[in-house]
Amino acid sequence: MNKRIVAIMMVILLAFALTPCDVVKVNAENSDRLTISKSVEKSYKTTGDTFIIELSTDKAGVATGSLKISGISNEVKLTQFKGTLVEVRDAMLKGDDAIKSVLRGFRGVKPDTEESIFSFGSAKGAATSVLIIDLENARAQSGTEVNIVLKANITEPTVEVEPIVNEKTYQFVLGAEELYWPMSIESLSKFSMNKEKRFGSYDWCLCDSNKKEIVSDKNPEASSLNYPVIIDKGNYYVKTKLSSTGELELGAMSFDITPVSESIHSNNTKGSAKTIKLGKKYSDVYTTIPSDEPHYYKFTLKKTKKVKLTYSKDDDVGITFGLYKKNGKHVALAYANATDSNNGTAKWGLSYKKSIKLKKGTYYIRVEKGRDTCDGKYTFMIK
Hints:
Layout: H1 3-16, E1 31-36, E2 40-46, E3 50-57, E4 61-70, E5 76-82, H2 85-94, H3 96-102, E6 103-109, E7 115-122, E8 128-134, E9 146-155, E10 170-174, E11 179-185, E12 189-199, E13 202-207, E14 213-216, E15 229-231, E16 234-242, E17 249-259, E18 274-275, E19 281-286, E20 295-301, E21 305-313, E22 319-325, E23 330-334, E24 351-358, E25 361-369, E26 376-382
Parallel strand pairs: 1-3, 18-20
Antiparallel strand pairs: 2-9, 3-8, 4-7, 4-9, 5-6, 5-8, 10-17, 11-16, 12-15, 12-17, 13-14, 13-16, 19-26, 20-25, 21-24, 21-26, 22-23, 22-25
Helix pairs in contact: 1-2, 2-3
C-alpha cells in the first residue's frame, strides 16, 4: 500500500478513535452515509483533502453508481472497499493482508466528467461499501471548494427471463437461483454467445429441451466469450448461474444465430460414406451437436492417377481432413497449411492444396474433430 493510501486510512482510524465499534462518527463536512434503495442523486461540497462515503443497500441486488467532481484541475483518486467503515477499520488494524481482503479497487475520476465508478451487492440481502475520495493535489489551489455529485441505483436479482432471439442484448442480475433462458431454433444454425461480465463473473451453458447440458462455458472468468457451435432445429435453453458463492453477479449477454443451408450429415460411418465425383466441389458443416462423429466420403479410381486435393474451412474451425485407403492406411492428412505426417503433426490454417499420385482402388475421406472449437463449414474437391 502506498503512503498516501495509508494516510487516508489513518483518517478513518481517527474517525473511530472516540466511538465504540457499533457507532461511527466522522466529520460531517468530509463524510456521509447513503442507503441505495432506488435511483438516487446526491451532491456534496467540501474543502477537505479527503471525502468518505459509506454506501449501503437495504435489499438483494447490485448497486452501481457514478461520480462527477467539479472544482478540481487534476484527476482524483478513488479507493473502494467492501464492507462497513467498522470492518474497514478492523482490517486496517490487522495489517496489509486484512486490508487487501476488503479492498475492492482503485479508480481515477477526471475533472467535470461523469464516470461509472463503483458497484457492489449481495445475493442474500443488504450490502455495504466504502468510497474514499482523495482530493489532495487535485485542486488548482489548496483549500478551494469541491463539488461532488453521486448518482446511484440498484438492480434486483432477475426473476423473469425472456426468450432468446438473435442480436438482442440481455442484462441480468444473478441471485442464488439458476436461470434458464428459452430458445427456439427454426433450422440448422450457427450459434455463438457474446458474454460480458459487469460485476463478478458467471457460468453459462447450452442445454437441450430437457435442460440437459450439452455445451458449457470453459472460461467463466473471461470478460467476453464467443463460442460458436452448430445446432439443429429444436428447442433449447441457455442456463446462467453463479460461478462463485456469496457475491451476486451482474452480467450481459447477446447471441448470434445464423442459419446454415446444409443439413445434418448422415454419412458418419465408413459404411454410409457419401460417394463423390472427381472435379466436383463439396461443402458441409461439421457439428458437435448432437454428436461429434466424423464425416465420411469415398471415391474410386479405375487406374493410377495423379489427383489434386484442395480443402478450406471457416476461420478458427479445428477440424482435420484425412485421406485413407480402403484398408484404413493413411495417405494424406490436412489440418490446413499442413505438412503431411503419419503421426498427425501439422499447423493450423484455413486452406490446403496438394497433388498426390494414387493407385487404382477405393479411397475414403474422413473429416473429424481436431480440437475443442470445431463447429463450422468446410469445402473440398478432388480432381
